[in-house]
Amino acid sequence: MKAKFFGRLVSCLLAVAASMALGGCGAESKDAQSQDVGTNDAAVTEGMRLQIKSLSSLKCLDVAGGYTTPDTPIVQFRCHQGLNQQFKLYNTFNGFQIQSMLNPNMCVGIHRAWWNELLYLVPCVDANGFRPLTTRWYLDSSDLQQPVSHAELRTVAAPRETQQYCIDVASGLDWDSLWMQIYGCHHGLNQQWELSNW
Questions:
Q1: What's the predicted TM-score (pTM) here?
Q2: What totals of helices (H) and strands (E) does the chain contain, helices first?
Q3: Which domains can be identified in the chain, with CATH numbers?
């Protein structure tokens, strides 16, 4: 029991160090200092079936092949409203997780906050029972209360004082099965997403 407790404590301390105290050790604590628009403001979309469409390519966020295994690529594909293009938001009070409707235990995430890092399907909760920062996204938006809203999806995992990274369609290409990435936030159309419930 002591070993398990100390293991969780060490994991927590490492997570705090790695995230520069963003959201505190991966737990669902509320970030009282957050000035990020929309982090606690998605009453319309939270928990409801959601399609996420790029405003540049007009393709939808898609779990490649409909697989649910960890590290399945998150790509863009022609919108067809299949289950692998359906997501729901989970409010962690320090950003949202984007859960796959294929398996609500799996989320859109990254392995690290780094330039050109690719998006994967990853477990929403880690082995220590925490919701990793690498699975959390700020929805930078002003219209999240609308049935159809628009947002940049910015990773929570990047320390505030460094470059911020957003989900990005590489070069705005409209290719089916193009693997989604994070890239320095620049507010271009290839980082703008339409979120719609149905």
A1: 0.78
A2: 1, 13
A3: 36-197 (2.80.10.50)
